[in-house]
Amino acid sequence: MAATLIASGCTIGRAYIGAPLRAEPTTLVEGESTKHEVLQLFGPPTQILHQTDGDAFVYTYEQYNYSSLRVEDPITRINWFTYTRQLENRDRLVVLFDFTGVVRRVAIDHQVEAMPVL
């Protein structure tokens, strides 16, 4: 009668990059709000782009959750089974300004919700 040993490994990771948006973009009024107001509401942007027709502030917040389970033979190191799950969400706010520093356009891609624990 032979006995078999099973080795397994589990990895869980979570990374948050940037900061959640501090205000709702609906508070910005195109043609009226200024750079100063945007900075007061949202803080410093993740990125500032200088364009030919004015600047753009980009705010980005990213969430990554990762989990992995591996089952292998401890002697031969043959992998019998691997399960991996990865969730990614991102919020991105882009505020375009004209040359005078007034908001010209606002765009948001909102994907971050409460992520399940893996």
How would you describe this protein?
With 118 residues, the chain is mainly beta. The protein has a single domain (7-110), classed as Beta-lactamase Inhibitory Protein, Chain:B, domain 1. Helix content is 7%, strand content 53%. The protein has one helix and five strands; from the N terminus they run E-H-E-E-E-E. Strands 1, 2, 3, 4 and 5 form a five-stranded antiparallel beta sheet that branches. Strand 4 (79-97) and strand 5 (103-110) form a beta hairpin. It is rod-shaped, with a radius of gyration of 23 Å. The mean pLDDT is 87.
In short:
This protein is mainly β. 7% of the residues lie in helices and 53% in strands.
Work out the helicity level.
under 10%
User: What low-confidence regions span 5 or more consecutive residues with pLDDT below 50?
Assistant: none
Distance linking N and C termini: 38 Å
- Radius of gyration from the alpha-carbon trace, in angstroms: 23 Å
Number of helices: 1
Percentage of residues in strands: over 45%
> Which geometry do the CA atoms define?
rod-shaped
- Number of spatially distinct domains: 1
Under the CATH scheme, which architecture would be assigned? 2-Layer Sandwich
Q: pLDDT average, as an integer?
A: 87
CATH class: Alpha Beta
Question: What are the SSEs and their pairings?
Answer:
Blueprint: E1 7-18, H1 35-42, E2 47-51, E3 54-72, E4 79-97, E5 103-110
Antiparallel strand pairs: 1-3, 2-3, 3-4, 4-5
